[in-house]
Design brief:
Blueprint (H helix, E strand, L loop, with lengths): L32 H4 L2 H13 L8 H7 L6 E3 L6 H5 L9 H23 L8 H26 L21 H18 L14 H15 L9 H14 L24 E5 L41 E3 L1 H4 L9 H5 E2 L1 E3 L4 E5 L2 E5 L4 E4 L7 H5 L4 E2 L12 E2 L19 E5 H14 L3 H15 L17 H12 L5 H7 L3 H8 L18 H5 L4 H4 L7
Parallel strand pairs: 8-9
Antiparallel strand pairs: 1-3, 2-11, 4-10, 5-8, 6-7
Helix pairs in contact: 2-5, 2-6, 3-5, 5-6, 6-7, 6-8, 7-8, 8-9, 8-13, 9-13, 13-14, 13-15
Length: 543
């Protein structure tokens, strides 16, 4: 298997928001037109279009804006971005993570525009391969615009490369942005290969473009830009991915997240690439840092590579931890670590008495349920029941752990981030089919995911009927299956459930969240650098 080798190159000029000193009209570039119009330069430009994905996926920035402040995760003990969860007045137009996503994505969009616009200028390039490269760039442009439109609503729409300093920008109608995204994905579908896992893994494929287009239609269907056939189209493209490719659900949910060769599995439709090479890994996949409890100062424990480096950023809500029927559904036990084994032998005071722990002994147990005091007192290790959870002590999500890091302090992980996988495709198909009025299909798609999640022999007990199906059930099922995978904030805003569910399930965020928080603030730098300021580029309501 050969992975795409990502490169980062700097193009002449980006749009107004992407350069802090844009109004000075200073052109800064390390890549000239001659190189960009060559075969090597064109290929590098395509690869560079992928690189901005690493600034969002599996980063604290991307996780904070998609996992935090939802019904699933609230604030742990550490970190500087708790106000994003709490929706306080600090979440405003100068919020660094918001501005950085905006700037980085528009930089990527301009890189994609350069690929699309310069393709015909590249001499001696195989025309079929050239079409594929343009299709990759258009897939990525659609991906970046889709995230932007979900986060900000109407955004600046530019499909041409900027090669000179500009200070004019405007917010295109939502319908126009969606039409551009759909047009890009339709082109990508017509030109991309169906499967390149064995040749150039990490590049966009036809299946990835169809999966994204299903997401786009599902999201547009509940927006002010909706069209009558959006749910039908979402179901259609999701079914295409399910039926027309070699993708399949792995028999074991836990196997989906195995690091190393296991990452390239039949369930993965498209992944954002990371590597063990520090020269090309940027800041690396850092998702392994953020979901872990403070195990490393507990009796019998110290930090190690296997258990991870606990940054204690995101704490699961009580709602999340209660979602699984643990008698039938294996996903709770496969998502959360329940036992820590001693890696610091010694004698400690545990449960009020002196206990000697040897290497490999149970040091911490999180049973996930309350236990009688007498049961806890009898244990020669620490027992942390739900009533004892704190912002430092809570069940650790394990799907992002990176035991292949070279040492216990390394932050830059090497595992890929699984951006699209088939289980989500089934749930997209279910939701779209439900809203399109086809409950039989909808239930069938949900049950496919739930049967895979069942303990052996419990498959029938996991099945639902049409009477069980509604949007809240689907949202719950997406949480059970896709927890932490940078989809939740989008799921809640798309379905109009953000305010309701945050108020109900996230007590730290509930007092402050308002209707306007269903969009992020337009970065103040964008407004300030636009001729006409807020008149030409208005802020989102409430900020």
């Amino acid at each position: 298997m050969k992975k795409i080798n990502l490169v980062i190159i700097f193009f002449t000029l980006l749009i107004v928001s992407s350069c802090k000193k844009l109004l000075d009209e200073k052109l800064v570039s390390s890549v000239n037109d001659e190189y960009l119009n060559s075969k090597a330069g064109f290929e590098d430009a395509v690869k560079a279009t992928y690189s901005s994905l690493r600034n969002f996926y599996a980063t604290e920035r991307g996780m904070t804006l998609t996992v935090f402040g939802t019904d699933t995760y609230t604030r742990g003990s550490d970190g500087s971005w708790k106000f994003v969860n709490d929706y306080t007045s600090q979440l405003d137009a100068r919020t660094g993570f918001v501005t950085e996503v905006w700037n980085e994505f528009y930089k990527a969009i301009n890189t994609a525009n350069s690929v699309v616009g310069r393709a015909d200028k590249v001499a001696g390039f195989d025309p079929v391969l050239k079409d594929k490269r343009v299709a990759e760039a258009r897939f990525l442009r659609a991906q970046y615009y889709f995230i932007l439109v979900q986060m900000f609503g109407p955004v600046h729409l530019t499909l041409q490369e900027n090669t000179a300093a500009i200070s004019t920008a405007s917010r295109a109608p939502l319908a126009d942005v969606y039409k551009a995204i759909i047009a890009d994905l339709e082109f990508a579908i017509s030109k991309l290969e169906p499967d390149i896992k064995k040749t150039d893994y990490g590049r966009a494929t036809k299946g990835a473009a169809e999966h994204l287009l299903a997401r786009v239609y599902l999201t547009r269907a509940s927006s002010s830009a909706k069209e009558a056939n959006d749910y039908t189209q979402a179901a259609r493209y999701a079914k295409n991915v399910i039926n027309n490719y070699a993708f399949k659900l792995l028999p074991d949910y836990a196997k989906v997240f195995e690091q190393g060769s296991g990452e390239v599995n039949d369930e993965v439709i498209w992944a954002v690439q990371y590597t063990s090479d520090p020269l090309t890994n940027s800041t690396g996949n850092r998702a392994h840092l953020y979901f872990l409890m403070e195990y490393d100062v507990q009796p019998g424990m110290q930090r190690d590579v296997a258990n991870g480096r606990p940054f204690k950023r995101f704490m699961p809500t009580s709602f999340t931890l209660g979602l699984w029927n643990r008698s039938n559904d294996s996903r709770y036990d496969k998502n959360f670590k329940s036992v820590f084994y001693c890696n610091k032998p010694g004698t400690y005071t545990i449960n009020g008495r002196s206990v000697t722990l040897a290497s490999g002994d149970t040091a911490i147990w999180l049973p996930g349920v309350e236990l009688a005091a007498s049961v806890i007192a009898a244990k020669n290790y620490q027992v942390i029941t739900p009533s004892k959870y704190t912002p430092k002590l809570y069940p650790s999500l394990t799907k992002f752990l990176d035991p292949l890091r070279p040492d216990r302090t390394t932050e830059a992980g090497s595992r890929d981030f699984l951006a699209y996988r088939l289980a989500e495709t089934y749930l997209i198909a279910a939701e779209a089919s439900m809203y399109a009025g086809n409950l039989v299909d909808a239930v069938s798609f949900v049950n496919k995911v739930r049967r895979r999640a069942a303990y052996p022999g419990k498959e029938l007990l996991m099945e639902i009927t049409p009477a069980d199906l509604n949007i809240d059930f689907i949202l719950d099922e997406r949480d059970r299956e896709l927890l932490g995978e940078q989809l939740r904030w989008f799921d809640l805003t798309r379905t109009g459930k953000l305010i309701e569910r945050v108020k109900k399930y996230n007590p730290e965020a509930a007092p402050n969240i308002k209707d306007f928080h269903a969009l992020r603030p337009i970065p103040q730098s964008q407004i300030d650098l636009t001729t006409g300021g807020a008149t030409a580029f208005p802020q989102n309501t409430g900020y």
